[in-house]
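Hi everyone,

Forwarding the result from last night's run.
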Amino acid sequence: MNMPILLAFILYFGILFAVGLLHYFKTKTSSEFMLGGRGVNYWVTAIAAHASDMSAWLFMGFPAVIYSQGLVGAWIAVGLIGGMFFSWHYIAQKLRLATEQYHALTLSTFFEKRFNDESGMIRLASSLIILLFFSVYIGAGLTGMGRVFESVFGFSYHNGMTIGLLASLFYIVVGGFTALAWNHFFQGMFLLAVIIFVPLYALLQLGGTTQIAAHAATNNISLSLLPTLSWYSFIEIVNGFAWGIGYLGMPHVVINYMGIDNPEHIKRAKYLGMIWLTLSLSAAIAVGLVGLGYFQNLQNTELVFVHLVNLLFNPFFAGIILCAMLAATMSTLDTQILVAANSLTEDFYKKMLHKKASEKELVWISRLSIIIVSLLGYCIGYQNSSTVMGLVSYAWSGLAAAFSPIMVAALYGKIYKSKTILMSLIAGATVSALWPLVGTPLIPLIPGVLVGTALLYFKK
């Protein structure tokens, strides 16, 4: 075991634990635990909204796409940047105001009240969809953690998963939403600095782009955004743009809008967040490209960042840098766990089992729900049979297909029957979930969103 790297990890986790303990004594009500009492300032919200989204995908999944497919994969970044701008501009402020108006702490509650669903089916269906796809998403984060600990420390994959999960659980259970927001701010700034620095330093050590171009040519990888005028290139561009649709209703992203202190500060948060997102995605593309210059035919392309760091830096500094991978993973993992747990607490326990539960009881039920949700994700990640990119793509598509169409309908539509919303919700999620069985190159998000939107239009 490499002790300098281990010391760097211990230092990093110590900071996270301290933040969790600090907020433990400030969390008294379920609203404070779930949304920070809607009191998080705009600059923390700006970074938290993006850091809570990136996950291990930023350091593992996305660079692997660039490393193995070339710059055609960069269309994913273009789609995400465009989608996030629309989310900030058209969703954030309206959602913040609407959820406060309807006294909703979760999306499921908001949709139920917004569409006047007295049957409770919208709440139930949306909660189950969140639980299903977030379990996959959490499994993706734990898969990334297991592989990082395995490659860096030589731990077994499953021990690495367990360590990462326990570290995440500590400060979620203790501090709730506010602890997460501040940790996301810290993690977001840290990972941004690291993911910009590493490829720049690696490129300087490489002495230019000549070797990148040579290795790309050897492996038949194009460094053009539009490598050929072919059906394949067209599909890749469409898939890339489609990723951005998810930001219109992605639960673990929009929850940050719901917790900001002042809706008027959304505009400031938007510009800060968009700068962060553009820089981080551009740097992730650079990681994949520079990796081409250093390595040919990596057995596990999702470890290109890890191999670069181990090659270029001394053990302690490498440990500090690799902590950024955990920052990206944990900042998404913990938010997804909290959102799913909030849904179990607010939408199942309080609504169906104990409507008169005290605030203290709800906080403890939330903490118990966090553990339950985490175990579901752990079971999925335990299989170690999928790539981080594959799991993220599947979960992202399912959540986007379910929630993006009805989010737009909730904030901009006029009259929708609750049955129509329920049909859109279930159909979008189902089509997306089953689409991989069809075996087409289109990502599941596209047919899922199309079906969900069509049902809204024809059944309005």
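Confidence is low (pLDDT under 50) at residues 29-37.

Cheers,
N.
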